[in-house]
Fold each of these.
Amino acid sequence: MKKENTSFILKGNVCYSKSPKEAAFIKDACIVCSDGICGGVYKTLPEKYKTLPLIDHRDALIIPGLTDLHLHAPQYPFRALGMDLELLEWLNTNTFPEEAKYIDLEYAGKAYTMFVEDIKKGATTRACVFATIHAEATKLLMELLDKSGICAYVGKVNMDRNSPEYLCEASAADSAQDTASWIEDTLHGYERIKPIITPRFVPTCSNELLERLGTLAKNYHLPVQSHLSENPGEVAWVKELVPDAAFYGEVYDRYGLFGKEVPAIMAHCVYSDEKETERMLQNGVYIAHCPQSNTNIASGIAPIRRYLDMGMHIGLGTDVVDGYSTSILRAMADTIQVSKLRWRLCDHTLKPVSLEEAFYMGTKGGGSFFGKVGSFEEGYRFDAVVVEDSDLVTPRLLTLRDRLERVVYMSENCKIKAKYVDGVQL
Amino acid sequence: MKKENTSFILKGNVCYSKSPKEAAFIKDACIVCSDGICGGVYKTLPEKYKTLPLIDHRDALIIPGLTDLHLHAPQYPFRALGMDLELLEWLNTNTFPEEAKYIDLEYAGKAYTMFVEDIKKGATTRACVFATIHAEATKLLMELLDKSGICAYVGKVNMDRNSPEYLCEASAADSAQDTASWIEDTLHGYERIKPIITPRFVPTCSNELLERLGTLAKNYHLPVQSHLSENPGEVAWVKELVPDAAFYGEVYDRYGLFGKEVPAIMAHCVYSDEKETERMLQNGVYIAHCPQSNTNIASGIAPIRRYLDMGMHIGLGTDVVDGYSTSILRAMADTIQVSKLRWRLCDHTLKPVSLEEAFYMGTKGGGSFFGKVGSFEEGYRFDAVVVEDSDLVTPRLLTLRDRLERVVYMSENCKIKAKYVDGVQL
C-alpha cells in the first residue's frame, strides 16, 4: 500500500452507476480524490485541482471498487471441488469438515493467506466475510485482510445445534460469551476491518443463541449477516424447527437480527415469499444475491427483478466457495445470465436484469452497506479499480458502455492495473 | 508449428474419457505418440518406446484436445456485446449486419485473424465453424485456420430467404452454384481444413435450396451442420413455414441433411420433441450443446441428461458469439451448471450432468465427429493439451480428478502450456 497521498487525480475512461437504471460513461475524464473522498468527475479539470498529482491511466477503464456482500473465507481451499451436492449435503460433506480445521492456527494462517492474496489481486475493495466458529482464527483472518488494504466486515460464526460435534459450540451461552470477547478484542483492533454478528443460519442456531446475538448486536451496534431461504430443503427444515414462525426470516426478526435494529445482510433469498419480502423491505434488509452459488449447489434462481422493482437493497456476493469465482464482475455476468433463464423457464413477467442493473448491484447497490461507497459521485469514498481491457480485441469501434459490457462478461481476460480504497492505492 | 517429429512420449498427469461415465486419471504417466497416433498410456514405459524423445511436462495435466462442435467465426467481433436480445432479434440486430461486412476481404482478413489467434491460444484442437455466405472470405478463413494448425470443418453459409437484402443470396440456384464452386476450390485445398455443407437454418433456406444442398452433400460426401429447435419463436416460425413437417428436423431429413446420408451436426436441440429426438437417434445426428449461448440469448436449457441416457452423439459448442467464451472447458462447466438449474426448475427426473459426462462431451463425444479423436486410448489421433494449474492454490492435497474438476471450473486461471494436433505441436 502506498499511503503517502490520498489527494490526487485519476485520468481514464470512467464508468459508474447513478441508479439501477442509469450509469455514467465518460471518456478521457478526471476523477478527483480529495483526502480519500471523491470530488467529482470532470471532462475539464477545474482550476482549483490543477496542482494535484495526476495519474493518467490512458485508455484503461476506471470503475468504482466492487463490493462482495457474501463470502466464506475458510471454504476457499475447496473451491470448485465436490460440485455435485445440494446445500445440506454440501455443508456436511464439504463445508463442515473443512471449517473444523480452523481450530489449528497454523492451518488457518496458511489457508487464509491464500484467500487474502486472491482477494487482493481482484477487483473487490469491500467485503462481508464469514469466518468459522473459532475466534482466534477469525482474528487472524481480520489481521490479514486489514494488511491487504481492503475494507471488510468479518464474522466469527455461531452454531450451537444441528452441527457435527467437531464444529458445534458447547452452548448458547458459551457461543455468545466467546463472541462477546471476540468483539471486545476486534472492535477497535484494525484500521479497515470490523466485526459483524454472524449466526450461520436458523438450523444451526437455537432460539437462545439468536436472542443472545441480538442483544450483542444491539449493545455494540454491530451489523448482522446470515443466510435466508436458499434451498427448498432448508426452508422446509426451518419450518419444522420453528413451526410458529410466519416465515423463515421472522425467526431472525424476533431477535433483532433482521435489519430493523441494526443493518443486516441476508444471503440468497431464492425462496422468500411475499410476507418475507415485505418484511425485508420494511426493515431495509440487504439481499446478497449469489447467482453462481445458487447454480452450483442447485438452489435455484432468486427473483432479482422483483426485488429491484420493489426498490430493495441488493448487492452481489460471490459466496466463495459455493461460488468458485472470487470475482464480482463474474457475479454481474452470472446475475444477468441466470435472470434470463428464470425469465425463460419460470416467469415471463420478471424481465432479465440489465447490464446497468447488474453493474449497480456490484458497485453502488452492495457498496451502500458501507455508507457512501460504490460510485464516483461527489462525496463518495474513493474506491476505484483500473481495468485494462486491451486484450479483448475486435475490429469494431466501441463505446464505453460496450467496453464495460465486455469487461463484465470477459473479466478473466482483463487485467486489474490498480486498485484504490479510501484513496489509498493497494 | 514444429513438424519435425510426430513420434515421441509426453509425460505428465494424464486425464481422458473412456465413456460418458468413466474417465481415466493416471498420475506421472507416459503417453506414446507414434506417427501422430496414440500408442497408449503407461505408468512404466515399454522397452520398445524407450528410444523415443520424451517431453516431461512434470506436474502439469495432459488432457485430450478439445472439440468445439459449433461456432461462428464472423461473429467474433461482437462477442459480449448487445447481450439483451432473443434469437430472432439478435440475428437481425447483431449478427446479420456484422456478417454482411465479410464481402470486404480486407475486413474479413482483419477480423478472422483476430478470431484465429484466439482459437490458437486456447485448448481447442478441432472445430466445426460457420463462416458467412461469402465464398472468398470463407476461403480466407480456411487458409488462416489451416495455418494455425487446428483441424476444422468450415462452412460457407447458405441463405436465400427471410434474410435482409444485404445478406441474401439471389436464388437457390445461385446459392448452390456458389457453394459447388467453393467446394471444388477447397475440397483438396488445405491440409487440415475441409468444407462442410452449412444451411444457416430452415427459416433462411427455401426447400429448393435445401434440396440442392442435399445433393451437393451426397455427391461430394460432405458432412452437414445447421441449427435446430433452439428457441420457441424459431420453432413456431418453422412450423408456419413448413406446416406439413412432422417436426423441425424433418425438414432437413427430407433433403438428406439430417445424418442419414452423410454425418450431420445440429446445434442446440433445446426444444426437440420426442419424434425429433427419435429421428436424431436413428440417423446418428450429432447434437452440439451450447449452454452459454442458450443462456445468453435466453433460449432455455437443453435436456442433455435425456440425450446422454439415450446414447445419442453429443458434443459441446461455444457458439461464439451467442456464447462469448471461446473455451470448451468453460462450456463443460456451463453444461453442468445449467443442467443443475434445469433439474431444479423444470424436471426433477433429469439429473444434473456429471464432471465425467461434461468432460466426455468436450473431448471424445464431440471428437468422434472427426473419427478416433478425443481420447488417449490406443489408436486415437494424438491431440493433446497440456494444462498448467499451479495458480489454483489450495492447502489441500488433491487427486487428479479434483484437479481436473478445478481446471474445468476455473480454466481462465490456468495456462495452456502446449497443444498437439495429430502429433504436431502448434
Note: Chain B touches chain A through 51 residues (CB under 8 Å).
Amino acid sequence: MQRLPILACAVLLGACISVPFEPAARRPDWAIAIHGGAGTIPRTTPAEEAEAYRSSLAAALRLGAGRLEAGARALDVAEEVVRLLEDDPLFNAGKGAVFTASGEHELDASIMDGETLSCGAVTGVKTVRHPISLARAVMERTPHVLLAGEGAEALADEAGLERVENSWFSTPPRRLQLERALEQRRAEQGGGTVGAGVLDRHGHLAAATSTGGMTAKRRGRVGDTPLIGAGNFADDRTCAVSGTGTGEQFIRHGVARAISDRMELSGRSARAAAEETVFGRLQAGDGGVIVVSHRGEIALVYNSEGMFRGAADANGRFEVAIWED
Amino acid sequence: MQRLPILACAVLLGACISVPFEPAARRPDWAIAIHGGAGTIPRTTPAEEAEAYRSSLAAALRLGAGRLEAGARALDVAEEVVRLLEDDPLFNAGKGAVFTASGEHELDASIMDGETLSCGAVTGVKTVRHPISLARAVMERTPHVLLAGEGAEALADEAGLERVENSWFSTPPRRLQLERALEQRRAEQGGGTVGAGVLDRHGHLAAATSTGGMTAKRRGRVGDTPLIGAGNFADDRTCAVSGTGTGEQFIRHGVARAISDRMELSGRSARAAAEETVFGRLQAGDGGVIVVSHRGEIALVYNSEGMFRGAADANGRFEVAIWED
C-alpha cells in the first residue's frame, strides 16, 4: 500500500525520468560465477592449501572470462570451465572424486541451456573422464534428459568422449577420507562439487554442474547434481544456478528452480531469491548456490562454513573466495 | 486495484459475514485424485476396453476413498493405491510395464510426504514387484532421496519387499507395442504411468507415482517419475501433484514444483496453477497432471487426447474418466 503514491508518481512521470529504487549498476556484457563446493571448510585450513584452492578457482574463472570476452556462447563456456575443474584433483568432480562405500567412483553431471531450456544429465558414470561433456551429449544426441549408469556410458563411445579406468579418478586424500568415513562417519573435507553459471554477450544463460557425490555413498545414490531444477538450472528469462551441498535437501526443496521461480513469479532479485531459498528453506550447513541473472547480477549465497567460489564480469569484477573475507 | 473497495468492505465487516469471491464449496475432510496415464488414447477405443480402464480406475479410487474415510494417513493411502495400479496389467507400472529397447523392464517410482517433505524414489528397478514401496523404503530407511539400479534393488531385501523375475512384468500387448515401436516408432498406446495425490482427514498431503517409462527407451533413461519436483511432489502448504506424459518435458519445466510454486508465490488455485503450467509451459500432447490442494480442491488437467483419471472426496464426489465426457 505504501508503494502506491510512489508508483503513481512513476507512472505519471512516465518516459521523462527513471526512478531508480536501487543503485544503478551497468548491466555487464557478460558474467560468470563458479563454485568448487561448500561445506565444512575449517578456518584453520593451512594458508598454502587455501591458496591452492584460490589459484585453481582463479584459473577456471580466467578461462571463462577470456572466452566470454571473446564472444563465446554461455553453453560452451559453462562446459569448458567445468571440464577444467573436473580435471583438477582438488575438487570432487572427475579426477579427485570421492569414493563410494564400495571403493569406486560414481560421477554425476548436468548442463542446461537457458535459451532453449535444452538440458542433459548423467548419473552413475564410472569411466568417462569428463562427465559434463557426457551430459551435453545426452542433451544433443538423445531425446532424453537423464541417463544412468551403463546406458550413459554407452553414449560416450558414440560421442567420441575419452574413457578412463575407474581408478583414474582416485587420489590419496580421497581414499583417506573414505577410510575415515567408514570408521567414524566424519564430515566431508576438501573441495566439493563444481559448477558454473554463465551469461554471455548474446544475452544467453547456461549452467553446468559436476560431482563425485558423497564420500561412502550407497551404491546407486543419485544426488541433486544431475537433477534439473534441484542442483542445476538455467532459463534466459531468469537466471543460471548451480548448487552444492547436501543433495537430498536440494532435491526436496528443488533449490535451483525455487530460485528461478522466485525471480519469475515474485519479481525477486537473484540475491533475494537465493537468500530466501538458502536461508528460508535449507537448513544451516546444507550448502550454497551460485546464481547469475539475465541482467548479469551475481549472487554467491551459502549457509555452510564456507564455499569455494569465484565471480567475474565484463565490468572488471574478478574475485575468488572461500570464507567471508 | 478494483479489489480494494471489496477488500475494504471485507475488512470492515470483519468477523460478521464472509464475502465469497468464488462459489463456496465446503472443504472436504479428505480428497483423492488418481491417474493411469495420458497421451494418445483414441476416441475409437472399443467400448468394452474403455470400460475395463474405468473399472480399474474405480477400484483404485474405491480403495483410497474407503481408507481415507476410515482415517488412514495420506502417505499410506497414496502407496496402497499405487500398489494396486502397479499390479493391474492395464497400466504402464509394475505388471504391464512397457519394454525397453533391449526387451527388458526398467521401472521408476517416487513418493513424497507433504507434512515433512520427506521423499524417496527409485529408477531402473528390474526385480521389485512394487517399485512404489521400494521408493518408500528409500525414504524411510536411507538418508538418500533417489537410488538407481542395483543399488536400489539391494534395498528391497533389507526392506523385505517381494522380488520377481523381470519377465513377470511382461504382457503380450506391451511386447506387441515394442515390436511396433522398433519397426515404426508408433506412438504409445494403452494405460500409462500411474499416480495418486491424496489429502487425508488430518490435513496432510502425499503424492505417489510409478511407471515403466517409454516403450523402447534407451537403457538407463530416467524420466520425470522418480524426480521430485518433476513428476511428483507434495507439500502440506500447497498441494500434491502426480504427472504423466513426455518425461523430458516434465523435467525441463519442473512441472510438479512449478504448480506448487504458483500456488505458494502467486496465490493461484490448484486449477489455475495446473492450467498455467500444462497449457503455458508444456507443448500440446505432452500429457497432464492430477493435483489435490491442501483445501481439498482437485484439478485434473491435461493437454493430450485423453487422460485415465479419477477423483473422489468426502463430500461425495466419485468419478472416473478418460476423455472430456
Note: Residues 1-23 of chain A have pLDDT under 50 and may be disordered.
